[in-house]
Design a protein that fits this description.
single chain; alpha/beta
Amino acid sequence: MELSLTQFVTIDGVCQAPGGPQEDTEGGFTHGGWTAPYFDETGGEFVRQVFARADAFLLGRRTYEIFAGYWPEHDDPADPIASKLNALPKYVGTHTLECADWSGTELLRGDLVEHVADLKSRAGRELQIHGSGNLARTLLAAGLVDTLYLITFPVLLGTGKRLFAAGSDPAAFHLTDSRTTPTGVHIGAYRVAGVPAYGTVGE
């Protein structure tokens, strides 16, 4: 399987608490729910297309707990997101979660990079990360992410956890898909393409 990462970010790269005010207030973050005014059918269709390619999910503890508190209670087989999340295998990278009641969940303890490399070696299309910023940063640094679906919202917050923190390893990407929604959200699909190339402009 290939490993894909779907991440909502602001223009200044913040990925903390996109879904609601109480989702993640760590560090005194007060801007939770910043995606809500911008959702429209174009963005929703792209997200459904991403979920259609999933054969398994890989989630961080916080994202898993948010999903597990909602999706099992909304198990509509006709819903292209709920049907995938409830039916497919879910792997959770965690050092603190003791148990997981959501059907199809397996906790990954110990060496996360080793676990994920093993999952990627299995047959299938996409092993998908959604949100899960801490997990995403670890696997980006380890070179395990193949495709990045970066959904950039037209808002700047100035504070909050960022997907690419200071000190992130340099990397290059190929843009494979790009679209903009009527509300101004930019959706880009990027393939990881090794390290950046450097030169001098005009030469």
